[in-house]
Write a structure and sequence with these properties.
By secondary structure, the chain is of the alpha/beta class. The protein has three domains: 98 residues, Periplasmic binding protein-like II (D-Maltodextrin-Binding Protein, domain 2, 3-Layer(aba) Sandwich); 75 residues, 3-Layer(aba) Sandwich (D-Maltodextrin-Binding Protein, domain 2), CATH 3.40.190; 78 residues, Alpha-Beta Plaits (2-Layer Sandwich). Helices cover 29% and strands 32% of the residues. Strands 1, 2, 3, 4, 5 and 11 form a six-stranded mixed β-sheet that branches. A five-stranded mixed β-sheet has the order 8-7-9-6-10. Strands 13-14-12-15 form a four-stranded antiparallel β-sheet, covered by helices on one side. The longest helix is centred in the first third of the chain and has 17 residues. The chain is globular and about 65 Å long. It starts with a strand and ends in a 5-residue tail after the last strand. The mean pLDDT is 95.
Length: 278
């Protein structure tokens, strides 16, 4: 049976590179064939799995420079049937791609908002007057370069090679150790591992957030991340995403989750998983 893996497209995105890496690892582990399926947005990538159009989705969740990919977190909260199967970290190196002969000829720059933010200092230094336009993906940005000698795009060197486009500068990301963590999502129960991700909302009372955090402390569970996101219901109403350095099958984690049900308004556990070695 061929496993369908959804990712943000078109070909040449960093999400596709992560999906290719995961596909290679999966094939080595299971000998199963995989087919990559590009989607025009992160939300549609995840919804494809939730609706049974694909078996797995590989989506970015956190960048070392710009932090969390909020679309991924918000969609995971909404599509709460999805479970994290695996995580992987991909080094990210951005290239400036253009048909312009010189940097001074560039008037417009296209790319995904994350890529633009990761190259903000470079853009401020070399193209302070350029118009910045966001696209759904780094690879999609390249379509604006056809027959346009005043447009530039930020994408990967691999994308430039795929579409036979010239690279004017690389790398241009503001920090050399730029990397992005991706999640592999599916409908199957998570396999277990030393990382657990969950999210919850709290009751609107004093100390509402402190009590869930005390539960983890009392069970000697280390948190590697906590982040708030608006519930989109009303101003000042938040939900909280938490990453634990533990497996949900451990006795102390089970005890903590049982108590969390009492201390939160809504609790969603997205699974325990491992991070593929780089």
């Amino acid at each position: 049976m061929t496993i369908l893996i959804a990712h943000l497209g078109p070909s040449g995105t960093f999400a596709e590179a992560a999906a290719l890496r995961y596909s290679t690892w999966l094939n080595q582990q299971t000998q199963q064939e995989t087919t990559l399926c590009p989607y025009p947005s992160i939300a549609q990538t995840m919804q494809a799995v939730a609706q049974g159009q694909a078996d797995l989705a590989v989506v970015p969740v956190e960048n070392s420079i710009e932090g969390s990919v909020t679309t991924t977190l918000d969609t995971l909260w909404q599509c709460d049937t999805l479970q994290i199967q695996q995580a992987l970290v991909l080094p990210i190196s951005h290239a400036f791609i253009t048909r312009a002969q010189t940097i001074d000829a560039v008037e417009t720059v296209y790319s995904h908002p994350q890529a633009l933010a990761q190259c903000h200092q470079w853009l401020e230094k070399f193209l302070p007057a350029a118009q910045i336009i966001s696209t759904n993906s780094t690879a999609e940005a390249l379509q604006y370069l056809d027959d346009n000698l005043t447009a530039g795009a930020i994408a990967s060197q691999r994308a430039a090679q795929l579409y036979n486009l010239p690279v004017l500068a690389c790398p241009i990301n503001d920090h050399p150790d730029n990397c992005t963590r991706f999640w592999v999502l599916g409908l199957q129960p998570s396999p277990g591992g030393n990382c657990t991700s969950l999210a919850f909302t709290v009751h609107d009372v004093p100390g509402a957030l402190l009590k869930p955090l005390q539960v983890f402390a009392q069970q000697n569970i280390n948190l590697s991340k906590i982040e708030s996101r608006p519930t989109k219901k009303s101003l000042g109403d938040y939900l909280f995403f938490v990453d634990l350095e533990a497996d949900a099958r451990q006795t102390n984690v089970q005890a903590a989750l049982k108590e969390l049900v009492e201390q939160t308004a809504t609790l969603k556990v997205f699974g325990s998983y491992t991070i593929l070695p780089t």
